[in-house]
Structures are given as C-alpha cells and as structure tokens.
Known about the structure:
The complex is a heterodimer.
Chain A: H1 11-21, E1 42-47, H2 62-71, E2 76-78, E3 84-86, E4 106-110, H3 125-136, E5 151-158, E6 161-166, H4 179-182, H5 187-190, E7 210-216, E8 220-225, E9 239-244, H6 248-256, E10 262-266, H7 268-274, E11 280-295, H8 305-313, H9 317-322, H10 354-363, E12 367-368, E13 374-376, E14 379-380, E15 382-388, H11 392-407, E16 411-417, H12 419-428, E17 433-439, H13 447-450, H14 461-470, H15 476-493, E18 496-509, E19 512-513, E20 532-533
Parallel strand pairs in A: 1-9, 1-10, 15-16, 15-17
Antiparallel strand pairs in A: 2-3, 4-6, 5-6, 7-8, 8-9, 10-18, 11-17, 11-18, 12-13, 13-14, 19-20
Helix pairs in contact in A: 8-10, 14-15
Chain B: H1 2-28, H2 46-55, H3 62-74, H4 88-123, H5 129-142, H6 145-159, H7 177-211, H8 214-221, H9 226-238, H10 240-249, H11 252-255, H12 258-263, H13 269-278, H14 282-310
Helix pairs in contact in B: 1-14, 4-7, 4-14, 5-7, 6-7, 7-9, 8-9, 10-14, 13-14
Amino acid sequence: MKRWIGTRLSRRELLLGTAAAVGTTMMTPRIGNSATPKAGGQLIIGSIQETNSLFPMFMGLNVGKALAGTIFDSLVKIDDKGDYIPCLAKEVPTIENGGISRDGLTYTLHLRDDVKWHDGRPLTSADVRFTYEMIMNKENNIVTRAGWSEVETVTTPNPTSVTIRLKHPHSPFVFFLVGEYGYVVPKHLLDGKTLNTADFHRKPVGTGPFVFKEWVAGDHILLAKNPNYWMPGRPYLDSILYKIVPSTQGLLALAQQGGLQLREAMNYQDQETARSFHGYDVVSAPSYTYFLFWLNCAEPGLDDEIVRHALAYGLDKGTICKTILKGLVEPSWSPINPIHWAYSEPSRKDTYDPRKANAILDAAGWKRGADGVREKGGKRLAFAITNIAGDVERLQIVQVAQRGWDEIGIKATFRPVDAASHNPNMRAGTYQLAYGFWFEDYEMTMAAWTQDPNQWRYKSDNLQKAIQAATTTHDRAARKVAYRAIQEDLAEHLPAIYFFNRILFDLVSKRVQNYRPNPNGSWNYWNAHEWWLA
Amino acid sequence: MLTFLLRRVTEIVPLLAVISIMLFCVLQLPPGGPETIYANDPAVTAEDIARIKGNLGLDRPLPLQYLSWLRQLVLLDLGTSYREHRPVLRIVSERIWPTTKLMLAAFAFAIIGATLIGLYTAIHPRAKSRWTVNAATMLGISLPTFWTGLMVQLVLAAWLNVIPAGGMYNIGEPFSVLDRLHHLLAPAVILGSVYLAAWSRYIHSSFLNVFQEDYIRTARAKGMPEPSVIMKHALVNGLLPIITILGLEVPRLFTGAMVTEVVFAWPGMGRLVTDSLLARDYPVAMGILIIMAVMVVLGNLVADILYAVVDPRIRI
Lengths: 534, 316
C-alpha cells in the first residue's frame, strides 16, 4: 500500500495564518509571485454538486455562480482583499470620481469599448439595459431581483454609458454590480426569446475569459480559453474541466490519482485526510458563512429573552470548537466576520456558564417541573431542534448542545429534516430551534433581517433603524457606527446564537498558481483569467 | 395470445392512472418545494419565492396541477424541469444510455457468473469448495454496495491506481472501447456481484430440482454423456426461474442504481431520480417514476410471454 507523504498544515499554523488574515488581507495568497506565468494546460476542478443552469440569473447554487464567473463578466468585481475592482465598467463608481451622485441616487457607468461576446458581437450599454429589464420582467423565473428592485430607471445615453437611477439612496448598491447580481447577458441572443426554457441555460454565451464548450449532464462541463478576451494575454489556461463527482470519497480518490487540481470547500474530516496527499496543498480561507442556532422568537418560551440568554449560557461553544471542530475555528458572537470592516466586537458575549443560566431562569420564575424541565405560566421549555439529517458533524454538535441544555432544565429533542426543507422551515417559521449555516453578503445588507417577517420572528425597531442607517449613507465611518448598533442589538436580545465563522478548505495542486479564493465563495473564480499551471 | 394481450392492456391503463395519482400525491408530502433550491440565498425574498411559485403554477390547487401534468403526458410530453429549465424527456434521454450500459454490463456479469456458480454447486453438491462458494455468495448478498464500492475505489483507484476513480471515460481523449470498458469494469462488477450472489442461489436450487426430473434420469439411462445431459436437457429448464426474475429486473435497465452511480460518478438515472427528489423537481421525478411503473408492468408482461415461449405446457 502506498502512503502519500505531502505537505502538512498544522492547526497552529492554520489558526495563526487565519488570524493574520484579519485586518490585513483576506487570506494567504496562493501565488507563485516570482515565477513568470506560463500559458497552456487544462485545469480540472472537482465538484460534488452540479449547477442547475449556466444562465446566471436562474442559478440557485453557489457552484453555478462561481462557474459563471469564468464565462461571464460582471460590471464590477470584488477581489480577495475585499476591494472593488473594475471589470466591464472602466472604473468602480464612487462619489469621489463622480460615478455616484452626491445624493446617492444616480450611478453612472462607463463601459469598456473593447469587450466582445463569445460570438464576436460587441458588448454595449443596450446589453446592460436588457439585462436589467429581463431581471425585472415578472414572467422570468429569475431567482432574485436583489439590488435591481431598488432601481427606478436604467438609461443608455450612448453605447458605452449606463445611467442607473435609484428610487432612494442605497449605499450597498455597488455590490449589486458584482458577481451573480452584476453579470451581463447578450441582448442580441436573448431578446424576444422565452428565457425560462431557452437553450442559453445549457449553452451560455458571455464575455468572460472562458468560452462554453460542452456540458455532459451529470459528468462534466468543459470550457475553453477565450482567444479574444479583452484582457491581453489572458487567460493563461487553455481550458477548464469542471468534473462532477457526487461523493467526497470519489473526489479524494480522484485527487490521489492526480485527476484534479482544485477541489473547494472540503469538510473538516476530508481536509485532514487531504493534507497527506502528494503534490497538493490545503489552502484555507475565511468566509462570510457562519453557523448559528436559530431561535424562533415567536415560540412560547423563546419569546422570553431570558430563556434565549440561558440557552447561550448553556452552550459550550469553546469545547465544541476544540473537539468536534478539531480546533480549526473559534467561537463567534456576531453575524459579521471579524475580517470585515463592519465588524465590532459585541460588548455582551454569553459565554458558557450553566450556573448563570440556572440563576437567571430561577430568578425569572422558570421553575423545574417533576421531570426536570422548566415551566412557567403553562409554558414548558421543551423544544425541537431542526437540523439537516445525515451530517455527522452537525449531529454531534446538536447532541452536545442538547446535553448542555438538559442540565439547565431546557429539554431539546431532535427534528432531522432533509436539506431541501431546512431553510424553507426557517422562512416559514415552522421551527422552534434550528441549527445550520447562513451568510451575509459583502455589503452586509442584512437582507434576511429586513424581510417581514424575518426568519427569527424577531421585532426590533432599533435593529431596523440601524440597518436603514447602515444601508443609506455612503460614509463608511457612519456605516460602521450603524453596524455596531446592529451587532449590539443582536447580542443584547439574542434572536440567534452565533456559533462560529466557517473556514473554507480548498485542495489545490501545487501546480496551480494564482488561485486566490474569495470570502464570498460564489466568486472564487474571480481571477480565473490569471490562473496558470506551473 | 391476442386475447391475452388485449386483456392485459385494458388492465394496464387504469393501473397506471392510479399509480400516477398516488405518486403525485406522495411527492407533495415532504415539506418544501421546487423553490427550496433558492431558499438558502439571503437575497431571495418571500416575494421572489411567491413569484417563482406562481410562474411554475405551484400556487394552483393540486388536482389542477395533476390534470395539467396528465394532459401533457397524454401528448407524450413529460413537462419541463423546474430545476434545469428544459424538457424532462431530454434530461431523461441523456441519462438512459449510461444507465442501460451499466445495468446491461452488471446483468451480463451476474447472469454468466450466477449460472456457472449455480450449475457447479448443483453438479458437485458435496465438493469442499461449495463452502467457499456459499460463504462468498452470502457476503455478496450481505455487504452493501456502498461499502464494497468505496473499498474498491479506495484500494484499486486511490492506492493502487489500476482503475479510474469514476466517470464514464477519459474526457478529452479520442474514443476508445478499452477506455470505456476500463471505466465500466468496477461499477458493473460491484453492482453485478449483488445480483450474482442472489441469482446463483436461485439457479442452484432450480438445477437441483431439474436433476431429479424423470427426463434427466432417462437421458442418463440412455447413455448420454453428462455434459450433453446438462446442455441439452437441464440448462434451459434450470434457467426458467431466472427468466421470471429478469422480467422483473427489466425496469432496472432504465432506472439505474443510485448508490453505485454516486460512488463511481456514473451519470445515470439513479442519480437523476435521487437529485430530482431531493430538489423537489416534481416533473423530473414524476416522469422517471412513471417510466419505472410502465417498465415494471411491461416487464411482467414480457416475462409472462417468454414463459409461454420457453415452456410449451404454458398456455396464455
């Protein structure tokens, strides 16, 4: 039996590396900085999921949104350091450069004049306007109109200018010119077509660095270099092969055979195994995804803030992080990742303290019944934890939580559901407690909190005012004050127990150069035009 | 024969109608719906989900949704996938050949192996090797395919690199029969071994019974060589039970084997039906399940007809 001996990344190195990313760069770059990029070669990416479509506005999965970044360009991009960079727009609109009017209502974009669609036709402002109109057309099953629903008009004074007027100031709007919100699609190919069932879903045409070649359902997607890409000399790669392998074991086996060069977002057990693979590195990067316990604030018992704090005091996050999560993550207290400028450390952190949990519950009149479960005024503190079935790590975490809560007189039972019904339960409020992950977008629009009702059934005028303030002004200092207020409100009233920020582990062949993952996983291929193989 | 066929057809149509209603209702039972694929995105609002549901007709009463589906089915249209935004028939047609190829290879391996093993153990009921064979067949029946598949993948693919880790062929290389067979080998053998283990026991029992028959004793008494006794008289009769079993297994040629397809990344119908159920892609799920129902019914019909062909004593 062969034993592969390869690079290892110790936990200490991992945590220190991640800590270094905080306040500086988003991640430790994977760059062969001193080497001259070489053109040629095929990069094979292994994925456990297959996208449902390659039409960006109809995609439901992150795997599709990431892949779309190789076929399509967006108006603006965000790099791995969190900076906006121009793409189809010659410059990122700001108030300083006049791209955003002083009242925050008008955005002016000047498009590059050297961009061509993969069929050779030039990109113009008419394509941008068409894309907007297509998104807003109610008959199209577009996934979301986020950002574009804030728009009043889109006009095109000339073929390379676009003027967007908002209904009201919305400071995060530049974010919606990025990625899956900001991809542009070709008017000349789609105008007049029934978009819900167009061939474009399986045969997309973009302006990106790679041209779609082939999609064998359930097996692979093949992209070829765009020889007429507007960035001279790019992309370096000849092709990208996106191989669909629906099992983690299969992906690991394929890697051991040298059959892939990139595999993103491994689970924590797999990244341990993968560290021993010869010829590969395990690259870690922070992400805006976080794990949490949802607390349904409309549920009898959970509508009492004291009970919610008791749940937090009864949850031993530190031990769970050290054991089940193998010391790879640290407990968190906010939906905002510390690497993000909007983060403020909450002044209140309910750390593990079962004595305090018991004390506050006793003081609030929640007395233990004959079976040890606390009750008050006819309400019992007995809840079901909704959790996705089949995930061992999640089950172990919920089991530890259950035990901790049992000790403080709160009975928790399991309610396993399949992945497809987990988040719909949250949206519908048909849960009591739930465990899972969620994420915030780069501009921290706190979109889920502004929906009425929100998933947590939590009502707070202070929170809504703070979100309104954070998403109206362009003054970053003022926004930071507003985000502090948001985090303080959530920490004080605890509609959710934030657990940890997810760290993503990508398996990357040592041959791959310039791979720089983005904390927003759906933009991991933002610089695919600069990847090359040593 | 004609009367028999007409009678069966008149029975099949209402049967399939009842099956389709039951399938449609059962698919609606799990929580969530086709829009759940989008629910993980914080930017997706309740209005977005309501809009998508409305566009897909999911806000109509269930009987109306069923009748729409039935109207399309009568026109041999299985509808449009909610998830992939294209016709269900096209999606299914892409997956049928990989599945049929895998299942045919697995069945061929199983039939040949089971016949050899079943016949050998029936001819040599007291051989010491029979214990080894019995143990092997018990293991074949008992061990789950996901385990054997993963072990084979780990040892032969990951460690020894003698078989591909998965897939149907080496992408980007010229067509090669050897390459196709190389990729087909492991999943077909893993899948076929389960059938081989079970079928070898049926065949063993069947041959034991056949060897007790008067016509076998007569053939031997006439001095016919034993190989001729087996090939001319025993073989076809001994394989009769397998015809019934194969008839029932015909639907599997089109429905695939989910576990094996997942382990070896084989893009077949097994994965498709599982993915469509998990994604609540009702048109695809209904389309495949109805095809499966039709296959089962037709498979039984074919088995009945084949019995009459093989055994002249049977009249239909």
